[in-house]
């Protein structure tokens, strides 16, 4: 916790490290209260640096001894200023020996070395290693590590670190040791150790080149019945990277460790991935379909980092998207390939588009907006964002859209050929893509440097006599903090033209036949694209497969949207047409609700929904997506002044109307989409359950008794967690008399399953009937724990981010609660506090009355004298 004014760090100020590190030998005497860390570094001056002092970072450490080339340094031989320890006048080559003390059990920030349920765990990205020992803790310093772990054998029978186990044995006095060696040079943020009481599921796995690797998934005792899916996902990830990118596992051993206390999803430490239990533990009894899918994606993500992140890493933290955008893109492609079918892929893509619109677009339009490669930050932990991750993945996807799959692969190959073992920049990736394909991608750089979501405006004109269709595309980008004016982006716009029959028309531009989907390259502020030989006036299908992270504007008529909703061969755009139809209506209904008018829904829309619902030629998973209404936050995003209550009223009305007017079809769907027999997490079964449970939710939105009876029956008889929570959710959201009892039964049955109890808290936190008083009461529940990030997210963050009606209560009570919790959390865990503080990002978009309360709450937090850099940066940007 710092009280001085936080410093802004700029990308332009980057300088190379003064010294490079060749080897690191770490010795740990592990004790929760007082751990001794002995660190022996061999370093040499970096010829690329003008700076001659050794610079080591350290935080929350007690320095015991410091020796340089064997000689103990006295107080006059070095200086400690804040987090920096500087040694001047050092020779070219040095061996530094540093002994420090730290207190893992007091580490509630969960950064560095900490204790989770009695086990030692580390988290070093981004700057946690400096909380373990003094070190040039920056990603462009890559070194070879040897690690000796010593601990009590009974309490910590398992001792793990990166790389290969080279020695283990007894020490007498009940202690034991293990020595690990990582053959690959790595930055300090990839260091990890685990000393714990754990058990593992393990397997030998044959790699493409014939080598065998040992794969392990480590969990606490009692959880071995929940590791299988993670292990299967890991094996699939290894195969996929071999097949799709020719990338092999480079170690003899690959370990995954699950911990219940973790700030993020998981971490790609070399050979020793550490995971939040949420992304490891699953079986049908405790995990939902979404959990199963999340595990596959995150296991893949961390595994793929081994090449995109670890073998080739980031020069500095401004380049974070170099590894994150690329690795998210890789995990998205992996998930798509695992589903296999084209409609399954589309459903996967629709999920990505939804996240982007629901979370990233608002970020790009708010006070924390930043480019994919930021130019400055106060606290790097605040930049693990949807912009760096998800928009970054869209940027990588655009290379593939522009260059084709093969061209993209060529670029990847060249990237590894050039940069294996190096710490590089986003520009190096772009150059590899350009050079491997002989293309100029200079303008593409703006996707990295300019923040904000571009708006593409489209207009079409059909010339009957010339049989041409001219598509005029123009682009602009709204101002964002520090960037009032933007230059045009290089935007791939995938386009199809539908004839009156609903079929795609063949596309020709400048005599070139382009099939039925053309990727137009919009590079100017305005451009015309002329399609020739167009036999009839078409309906344009624009931005197919969401070919760029932009807002697309086109003055579609209802008739055109209905045409696309029924016929578009691009499933993403087919879904998109439905979203546009619902959004238009939701916005109008919101207006009427705000004015206290009477709400009504047109038949045309209901009929379109009926058609999709009953079209058995469509995959259930796709139907579910197409029938799902835009969320309240997405509706809010379209409004100039946000009024949470009318939005909620409008959306609830629409749900109830659909539920009532399609009652018979929903009921029939509910019955036909059952998945009897043993649970399976394949895409088809997941789709059927999703559609069935959506039908239940719609039915539950009506006052019909029958729906509640169905929900109650499903709740009691469910044989998997997906159906169980869907039923419980239906009861809670309908405020059914049976809901409280169901909640109690659910709790009693799953009391010992922390991840299920998280769901129990989250479902209550997001119910429209749960007000601040109820949340406060839940915080007093014995199962609530302010130190556990998953629990805090499930109750406090869910309430603030996903219960808009109550969070934005007219009396400002939600905001006062928010301020109180941000302050309380900040004293324990600044990263978690800072995430929560983002709930207030877009406060200027609300009504003046709400704004006044929000400002007051923000000022209360900002006015604290003791505040972390993390929270300080977020609230001061919100207020500025
Ligand atoms: N690199 C990890 C995410 C991660 C980032 C920061 C952390 O602690 C502050 C932990 C994990 C990933 O992308 O999966
Ligand atoms: Zn990552």
Give your account of this protein's structure.
With 880 residues, the protein is an alpha+beta fold. The strands form nine sheets. Strands 6-5-9-3-2-12-15-14 form an eight-stranded mixed beta sheet, with no helix packed on it. A hairpin with a 4-residue loop joins strand 20 (266-267) and strand 21 (272-276). Helix 3 crosses helix 5 (386-419) and helix 25 packs antiparallel against helix 26. The longest helix is centred in the middle third of the chain and has 34 residues, at 386-419. The chain is globular and about 85 Å long. Bound molecules: O-methyl-L-tyrosine (0A1) and zinc ion (ZN). O-methyl-L-tyrosine binds at residues 123, 125-126, 263-268, 301-302, 324, 381, 384, 831. Its cofactor is Zn(2+). Aminopeptidase N is involved in the degradation of intracellular peptides generated by protein breakdown during normal growth as well as in response to nutrient starvation. It is an enzyme of class 3 (hydrolase). Keywords: Aminopeptidase, Hydrolase, Metal-binding, Metalloprotease, Protease, Zinc.
- Residue-averaged pLDDT, rounded? 98
- Assign a percent range to the helix content: 40-55%
* Distinct small-molecule ligands in the complex: O-methyl-L-tyrosine, zinc ion
The main β sheet shows up as:
8 strands, mixed
- Backbone shape: globular
Enumerate the spans where pLDDT stays under 50 for 5 or more consecutive residues: none
Strand order of the largest sheet: 6-5-9-3-2-12-15-14
User: What structural class is derived from the secondary structure elements?
Assistant: alpha+beta
First-last Cα distance: 23 Å
Strand content: 15-25%
What gyration radius follows from the Cα positions, in whole Å? 28 Å
Question: What is the number of helical segments per DSSP (H or I, 4+ residues)?
Answer: 26
**β-strand number:** 33
């Amino acid at each position: 916790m710092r009280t001085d004014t936080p410093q802004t760090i700029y990308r332009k100020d980057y300088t190379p490290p003064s010294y490079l590190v060749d080897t690191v030998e770490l010795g740990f005497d592990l004790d929760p209260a007082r751990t001794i860390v002995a660190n022996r570094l061999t370093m040499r001056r970096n010829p690329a640096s003008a700076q001659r002092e050794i610079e080591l970072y350290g935080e929350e450490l007690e320095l015991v001894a410091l020796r340089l080339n064997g000689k103990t340094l006295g107080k006059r031989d070095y200086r400690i200023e804040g987090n920096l320890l500087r040694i001047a006048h050092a020779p070219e080559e040095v061996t530094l020996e540093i002994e420090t003390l730290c207190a893992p059990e007091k580490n509630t920030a969960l950064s560095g070395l900490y204790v989770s349920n009695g086990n030692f765990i580390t988290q070093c990205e981004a700057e946690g290693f400096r909380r373990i020992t003094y070190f040039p803790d920056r990603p462009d310093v890559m070194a070879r590590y040897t690690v000796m772990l010593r601990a009590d054998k009974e309490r910590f029978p398992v001792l793990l670190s990166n790389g290969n186990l080279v020695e283990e044995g007894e020490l007498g006095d009940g202690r034991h040791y293990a020595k690990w060696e990582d053959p690959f040079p790595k930055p300090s943020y990839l260091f990890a150790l685990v000393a714990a009481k754990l058990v593992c599921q393990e397997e030998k796995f044959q790699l493409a080149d014939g080598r065998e690797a040992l794969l392990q998934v480590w969990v606490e005792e009692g959880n071995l019945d929940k590791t299988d899916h993670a292990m299967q996902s890991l094996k699939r990830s290894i195969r996929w990277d071999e097949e799709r990118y020719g990338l092999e596992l480079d170690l003899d051993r690959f370990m995954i460790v699950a911990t219940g206390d973790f700030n993020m999803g998981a971490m790609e430490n070399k050979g020793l991935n550490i995971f939040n239990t949420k992304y490891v533990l699953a079986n049908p009894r405790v995990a939902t379909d979404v959990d199963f899918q999340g595990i596959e994606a995150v296991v893949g993500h961390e595994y793929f980092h081994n090449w995109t992140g670890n073998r080739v890493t980031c020069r500095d933290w401004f380049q974070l998207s170099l590894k994150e955008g690329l690795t998210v893109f890789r995990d998205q492609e992996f998930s798509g390939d695992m589903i296999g079918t084209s409609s399954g892929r589309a459903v996967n893509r629709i999920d990505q588009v939804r996240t982007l619109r629901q979370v990233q677009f608002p970020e790009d339009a708010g006070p924390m907006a930043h480019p994919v490669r930021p130019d400055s930050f106060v606290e790097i932990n605040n930049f693990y964002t949807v912009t760096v991750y998800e928009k970054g993945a869209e940027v990588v996807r655009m290379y593939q859209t522009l260059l084709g799959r093969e061209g993209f692969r060529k670029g990847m190959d060249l990237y590894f050929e050039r940069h294996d073992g190096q710490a590089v920049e986003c520009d190096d990736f772009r150059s590899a893509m350009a050079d491997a394909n002989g293309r100029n991608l200079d303008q593409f750089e703006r996707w990295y440097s300019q923040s904000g979501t571009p708006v593409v405006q489209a207009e079409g004109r059909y010339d009957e006599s010339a049989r041409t269709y001219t598509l005029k595309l123009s682009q602009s980008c709204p101002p964002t903090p520090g960037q009032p004016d933007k230059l045009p982006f290089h935007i791939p716009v995938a386009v199809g033209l539908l004839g009156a029959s609903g079929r795609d028309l063949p596309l020709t531009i400048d005599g070139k036949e382009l099939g039925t989907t053309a990727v137009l390259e919009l590079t100017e502020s305005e451009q015309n694209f002329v399609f020739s030989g167009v036999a009839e006036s078409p309906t344009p299908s624009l931005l197919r497969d969401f070919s760029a992270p932009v807002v697309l504007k086109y003055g579609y008529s209802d008739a055109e949207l209905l045409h696309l909703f029924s016929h578009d061969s691009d499933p993403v755009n087919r879904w998109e047409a439905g979203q546009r139809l619902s959004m238009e209506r939701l916005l109008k209904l919101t207006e009427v609700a705000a004015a206290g008018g009477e709400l009504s829904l047109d038949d045309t829309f209901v009929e379109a929904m009926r058609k999709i619902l009953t079209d058995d030629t469509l995959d259930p998973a796709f139907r579910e997506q197409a029938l799902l209404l835009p969320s309240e936050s997405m509706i809010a995003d379209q409004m100039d002044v946000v009024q949470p209550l009318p939005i909620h009223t409008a959306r609830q009305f629409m749900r109830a109307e659909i539920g009532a007017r399609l009652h018979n079809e929903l009921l029939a769907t509910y019955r036909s989409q059952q998945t009897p027999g043993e649970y399976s997490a394949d895409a088809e079964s997941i789709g059927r359950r999703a559609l069935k449970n959506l039908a239940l939710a719609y039915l539950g939105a009506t006052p019909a008794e029958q729906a509640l009876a169905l929900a109650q029956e499903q709740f009691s008889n469910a044989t998997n967690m997906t159906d169980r929570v869907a039923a419980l959710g239906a009861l809670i959201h309908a405020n059914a008399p049976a809901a409280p009892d169901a909640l109690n039964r659910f709790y009693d049955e799953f009391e010992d399953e922390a991840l299920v109890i998280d769901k129990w808290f989250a479902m209550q936190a997001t119910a429209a009937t749960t007000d601040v008083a109820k949340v406060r009461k839940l915080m007093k529940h014995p199962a609530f724990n302010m130190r556990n990030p998953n629990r805090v997210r499930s109750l406090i963050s869910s309430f603030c981010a996903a219960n808009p009606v109550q969070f934005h209560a007219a009396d400002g009570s939600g905001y006062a609660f928010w301020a109180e919790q941000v302050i309380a959390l900040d004293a324990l865990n600044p990263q978690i506090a800072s995430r929560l503080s983002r709930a207030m990002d877009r406060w200027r978009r609300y009504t003046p009355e709400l704004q006044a309360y929000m400002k007051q709450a923000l000022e209360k937090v900002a006015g604290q004298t003791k505040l972390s850099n993390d929270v300080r940066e977020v609230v001061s940007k919100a207020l500025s």
